[in-house]
Amino acid sequence: MNLLIFVFVLFQVRAPPDYLAQRDEPVDFPPAFPVYYFFYRTLTAPAQVKRILELPEEPQLREAEVFGYAVAKWGDYPALINGKQGDVVTGSAYLVRSAEEAQKLLYYETNAYEVADCWIYFKDEKEPKEAGGRVFMYAGDAQALLEQRFDRKLWSRQMGGKLG
């Protein structure tokens, strides 16, 4: 067995169950709130957003889409990656009102995802029709993800330099 694969498997066996959700360092968001976040897949359910953000009631999400992205599978999870020109991902957008809300979303997404700027196009009749916003993108090697092979970039990110 390849030594690198052996070390990775050994780590998975010995890692705490919530390892992927752990964060060693706080993330500093710019004080530019409120800002729209584009959600795809699981976060398009208002009940899920309510639970994660600990809101008193289900939030109003706006149907939206982003261009130039694609969704790939990371195990059982969807992962947004850069796509081709003309690719469209549909989902919803939520107006994140504070750094605290943004931090809760970041914690939920784990360090397998990173926040990126995006341009959001709304599909409803409300204003604004489009807005600059943020989205959670896969933090690893998108090509490795698509080829379903070991992702050294994501592995290094999750290890945080702890193994050398």
From TrEMBL:
<comment type="similarity">
    <text>Belongs to the gamma-glutamylcyclotransferase family.</text>
</comment>
<feature type="domain" description="Gamma-glutamylcyclotransferase AIG2-like">
    <location>
        <begin position="37"/>
        <end position="155"/>
    </location>
</feature>
<dbReference type="InterPro" id="IPR009288">
    <property type="entry name" value="AIG2-like_dom"/>
</dbReference>
<protein>
    <recommendedName>
        <fullName>Gamma-glutamylcyclotransferase AIG2-like domain-containing protein</fullName>
    </recommendedName>
</protein>
<dbReference type="Pfam" id="PF06094">
    <property type="entry name" value="GGACT"/>
</dbReference>
<dbReference type="InterPro" id="IPR036568">
    <property type="entry name" value="GGCT-like_sf"/>
</dbReference>
<feature type="signal peptide">
    <location>
        <begin position="1"/>
        <end position="15"/>
    </location>
</feature>
<keyword id="KW-0732">Signal</keyword>
<dbReference type="InterPro" id="IPR045038">
    <property type="entry name" value="AIG2-like"/>
</dbReference>
